[in-house]
Amino acid sequence: MGVPYIASLQLDASGRSNFRMLLRQEGIAVGRTGIRPLGLLGALLFGAAVALAQPSAPVDCLSCHEDQAKVLAPSAHAKVTCAQCHTKHADYPHAEKLPKPECNSCHAAQVGDHRRSVHGEQIRAGNTSAPDCAVCHDKAHETKLTKAAEFHKNVPELCGLCHAEVLADYQTSVHGKALASGIAEAPVCTDCHGEHSILRPKTAGSSVGPAAVSETCGRCHGDLRLTRRFGLPSDRITTFGNSFHGLASKTGTQTVANCSSCHGFHKILPSSDPKSTVNAKNLPQTCGNCHPGAGSRFSISPIHVSEGGAEPWQTRFPRLFYLFVIPITIGLMLLHNAGDWIRKFRVLRLQPRHAQPDATLVAGQLRMYPWERFQHGLLAVSFLILVWTGFALKYPDQIWARPLLALEGFFPVRGVVHRVAGVAMVLVSLLHVFLLATNRQLREHWFELAPKWRDLPEAWNMFCYNLGLRANRPAISSHSYIEKAEYWAVVWGTGLMAVTGVMLWANNWMLAWLPKVWLDFVITVHLYEAILATLAIVVWHFYGVIFDPDVYPMDTAWLTGRTVRKHADHNPPTESVPDELREPGK
User: Fold this and answer.
1) Beta carbons within 8 Å of 423's beta carbon, 6+ residues apart
2) Contact 192, 207 (CB under 8 A)
3) Residue 498 in 3-state DSSP?
4) How many whole angstroms separate alpha carbon 253 and alpha carbon 411?
5) Largest distance between two CA atoms of the chain
6) How far apart are CA 404 and CA 389, in angstroms?
7) Contact at 8 Å (CB) between 251 and 408?
8) How many helices (DSSP H) and strands (DSSP E) are in the chain?
9) For residue 568, what are the β-bridge partners?
């Protein structure tokens, strides 16, 4: 206390009485009117002694609460001072009925997650058995270190206090057995469901929801360090992501199969176990949950198929074939068109201005009849839609695919639109065949596109000319190898894409009547043929009708029927022109 303290006292009657009593207890004489002179000296000395004896730091609470000292030392709160939690206990003696400290004062984020979780939901609903902070972490003074290996190992038993059936399944699973054998990296409940923000599987944002399961499983099965250490396949997440199921799940589709659909939730067993849902003998039943009849006639081949390695020949052969054909085909097209563009650029931009154009070449030839332009228009629209939606199905993460994903969680826009466009292309093809069979004029025009032996030397000579290996430009037919290559490529590509597309559409039939590996074969062919067709249209067809300097900015034959490209006047097209399309005087 000391002199300053005593001098500053402003006590009432009761306070003065208590103060005198305190001084008398210390042997200091006090009169009725106050402290006697000798007593005053003693009071001053007593106050000075008390002041010197006061600690500069806060009072040590554990000197009175010795029982809490023993349990607090090894807890997670060992380094937390008492005053940080017990904010209103500085006065002594303590006031009665002081509020207990709240975890929210230090752990606001965790408490907020818990309130939004299924556990918090149950507490608000009046379920007194729902776990709160103390149930999982123990009392505040005995809070366990969550990062300790012992705490991690005991998580299943802790959750099993309420979820006994789940605990029994987990203990028999490959994860539970790994944990019991001492593998600290083995996943426990909190690794999959989260620690505080535990949500129902169908709740948005749940770590075990359909759209998030593969990412949750991928924390371990996509970690190369863990897969190499424990001898696990390292391609399970990537192969799933590239599959139909994985691509659909990326867009939020709730009904597509995910990891747990095949492997189970808690009772996950190795494929070698006869009780496993992914055991070879059980795959027909597992896959049959979504694909009735799958594997009923043939055993289902491996599900996770990766390029190279143990890839079956049914997918390896077409993949290697297209990886060989596509670069060569498109590369030759690029060389052909690049040489043609450079030569024409030199003539148009670098030749003397007084050079006279070739009078034997004239524009305006009729190249497409009305029915042909109608078919071409439908074909072009359906093809562009097929390309956009098809590649959006394969590459949903790309920016150009995002407009199609806006409603994907509610309606399969890409798949439906893709199939509709595919049906439209097939109908256009059937219309084309029907018109050729019933219309003599179109049929005679079609014969101009029939391959002939002279097409080979014409193509070779023009290719050499474009590369500078030939001095003079060779003569080519009115309907040359350029148009013929385009037409027959469309015929081949449309037929192949239609057949494989129908087989993919009927995937349940494929899985019921053929081995799954042939479905993988169809998927491979459909994808790579689409890539080849798209590149061919861009590199070959678009150059001929847009970027070729002879027709730039566009060959209008697909709109008006007549081309702006100049052809030899003495060698008119052999197709017969209908009277209604003839120009006056011709």
Assistant:
1) none
2) yes
3) helix
4) 9
5) 145
6) 8
7) yes
8) 29, 2
9) 361
Cβ 249 vs Cβ 258: under 8 Å: yes
Q: How many CB atoms lie within 10 A of CB 187?
A: 22
9 within domain boundaries: yes
Residues 141/134, Cβ–Cβ less than 8 Å: no
| Residue 72 near residue 78, CB atoms below 8 Å | yes
Q: What is the mean predicted confidence (pLDDT) over 510-527? A: 93
Check if the beta carbon of residue 539 is closer than 8 Å to that of residue 334: yes
Return d(Cα 107, Cα 409) in angstroms, integer: 35
Tell which residue, 25, 67, 61, 66, has the closest CA to residue 43: 25
**Closest of 118, 120, 126 to residue 103, by C-alpha:** 120
pLDDT digits over 212-234, tens only?
A: 898 999 999 999 999 999 999 88
Tell me whether residue 32 is in a domain: yes
Could you give the C-alpha distances from 334 to 115, 296, 487, 526, 529, in angstroms and in order?
62, 48, 18, 24, 18
Q: What's the distance, CA 489 to chain centroid?
A: 35
Q: What is the pLDDT of residues 473-504, one digit of tens each?
A: 898 888 899 999 999 999 999 999 999 999 99
Tell me the whole-structure pTM to 2 decimals: 0.75
What are the structure tokens assigned to 276, written together? 């496993």
**Which sign does the torsion angle of CA 497, 498, 501, 503 carry?**
negative
Structure token pair of residue 349: 């931009």
Query: Domain total for the chain?
Result: 1
Q: Which two tokens stand for residue 180?
A: 């019991």
Query: Mutual orientation of helices 413-438 and 370-394 as an angle, nearest 10°?
Result: 150
Which domain range does residue 36 map to? Answer: 2-53
- The encoded tokens of residue 315 equal 């997918």
Residues 278 and 2: their CA atoms lie apart, in Å, by: 82
In a domain, 17, yes or no: yes
Omega of the bond leading into 553 within 30 degrees of 0 (cis): yes
Which one has a higher pLDDT value, 358 or 391? Answer: 391
Beta-strand runs (E) in 217-285: none
Bond into 403 cis (ω within 30): no
| 568 sits in which H/E element | strand 567-568
Q: What is the per-residue DSSP string for 83-114?
A: HHH-TT--SSSPPTTPPPP-GGGT-HHHHHHH
Integer angstrom CA distances of residue 376 from 64, 370, 428, 468: 94, 10, 9, 34
- For 207-366, list the strands marked E by DSSP: 361-362
Task: Look at residues 41, 42, 53, 37 and name the one whose alpha carbon lies nearest to residue 1.
Answer: 53
Give the closest residue to 403 by CA, choosing from 386, 415, 416, 389: 389
- Which helix (H) or strand (E) segment holds residue 228: the answer is helix 224-230
On whether residue 497 sits in a domain, the answer given is no
